[in-house]
Write a structure and sequence with these properties.
Blueprint (H helix, E strand, L loop, with lengths): L6 E2 L2 E13 L2 E8 L13 E7 L2 E6 L10 E6 L7 H8 L5 E5 L13 E7 L3 H14 L3 E7 L8 H6 L6 E5 L10 H4 L6 E7 L1 H14 L6 E5 L12 E5 L4 E5 L5 H7 L17 E6 L2 E2 L7 H6 L2 E3 L4 E2 L3 E4 L2
Parallel strand pairs: 8-9, 8-11, 9-10, 11-12, 13-19
Antiparallel strand pairs: 1-2, 2-3, 2-7, 3-6, 4-5, 13-14, 15-17, 15-19, 16-18
The structure holds FE2/S2 (inorganic) cluster.
The site of FE2/S2 (inorganic) cluster has 14 residues, from loops.
Length: about 325
């Protein structure tokens, strides 16, 4: 696959070539290479970073068929508590707008060759599942897509699913629908056998589904997760000190600021994107001290190892953290 003619150092200049309102508060954007060339290939489950403003980057999953090489399609929910990212995309990313994006990266890869695959999406979490459904269809794989949404007006891409080659494998569950169409872990996540389960959605939905899957005996390794939001409770924050091991510099992190923000204010560059512990951009090595992990990017095992932490949202359990910076 040829690289984009307009891809420099992992960044690509693109132009918005199509924009559709897909449901209440949800738009889709079609992005093409600004120079008219092909785009770098991507695998199902990939996302791109979109530079929304000079200092605001947001991640969006690619939802179109990974076999397509001429466009990326993303779905964007206007977050009710937007810190500026999704609102700016909704307000300013119109057809003809140029933007810089990263090349695709995949933290949510599909295990191809599974005996059966269950794709389970909550709300806007359906976007990576659509790319996965395209790929599984191309592979001739056995799979089902379960899509949970609050109401029909808030469920995006229903027409796309209806018109797709995987329409017969899709099951839509509305919170305000009849009880018999509600998602049921017992019914929809059985049998387990050698199936793989992919779950994407907001935190509460993920907790509900993971609890149901574990109660049914799903093996940990067969459950694959991608969070779309992270609920961070700021109550009880306290101040602590961070020492930067490479310079010996010490900085106080007050209760109302993140480590990443204090580092930035003091001229220490830390890559930050989602700012809520989802993407892993700010992952940093921990030399000593115990982090209070609040991200959903790392696994439980990685949290217990305490070798790395996310600086955008995680804090310290003690008074001092020594970071590998
Ligand atoms: S910026 Fe995304 S995890 Fe910290």
């Amino acid at each position: 696959m040829a690289a984009s003619s307009n891809s420099v150092g992992g960044e690509i200049d693109v132009v918005v070539t199509r924009r559709d309102v897909e449901a209440d508060g949800i738009i889709s954007l079609e992005l093409r290479d600004a120079g008219g060339g092909p785009l770098p290939a991507f695998t199902a489950g990939s996302h791109i970073d979109v530079m929304v403003t000079a200092d605001l980057t947001r991640q969006y999953s690619l939802m179109n068929d990974p076999a397509e090489t001429d466009r990326y399609v993303i779905g964007v929910l206007r977050e009710p508590n937007s810190r500026g990212g999704s609102a700016a995309v909704h307000d300013h990313f119109l057809v003809g707008r140029h933007a810089t994006i990263s090349t695709p990266r995949n933290h949510f890869p599909l295990t191809e060759g599974a005996g059966r695959t269950i794709l389970l999406a909550g709300g806007i979490g359906v976007t990576p599942m659509l790319a996965m459904a395209h790929r599984l269809t191309a592979l001739g794989a056995d799979f089902a897509l379960h899509y949970c949404a609050r109401t029909k007006t808030r469920a995006a891409f229903l027409d796309l699913i209806d018109a797709s080659a995987f329409a017969a494998r899709a099951h839509i569950h509305f919170d305000d629908g009849a009880p018999e169409q509600y998602f049921s872990a017992e019914r929809d996540l059985s049998p387990i056998d050698d199936a793989h389960l992919y779950v994407c959605g907001p935190g509460g939905f993920m907790d509900f589904v993971i609890g149901g899957a574990k109660a049914l005996g799903w093996p940990h390794d067969n459950i694959h997760l991608e969070y779309f939001s992270n609920t961070i409770v700021e109550d009880g924050n306290r101040a602590f000190t961070v020492r930067l091991a490479r310079s010996g510099r010490e900085l106080t992190i007050p209760a109302d600021k993140s480590i990443a923000n204090v580092l930035k204010e003091n001229g220490v560059a830390v890559p930050v994107a989602c700012e809520e512990g989802i993407c892993g951009a700010c992952l940093t090595g921990v030399i000593s001290g115990l982090p209070h992990h609040r991200d959903v990017f790392m696994t439980d095992e990685e949290h217990e190892a305490n070798k790395e932490m996310t600086l955008c949202c995680s804090r310290a359990k003690g008074d001092l953290l020594v970071l590998d910076i």
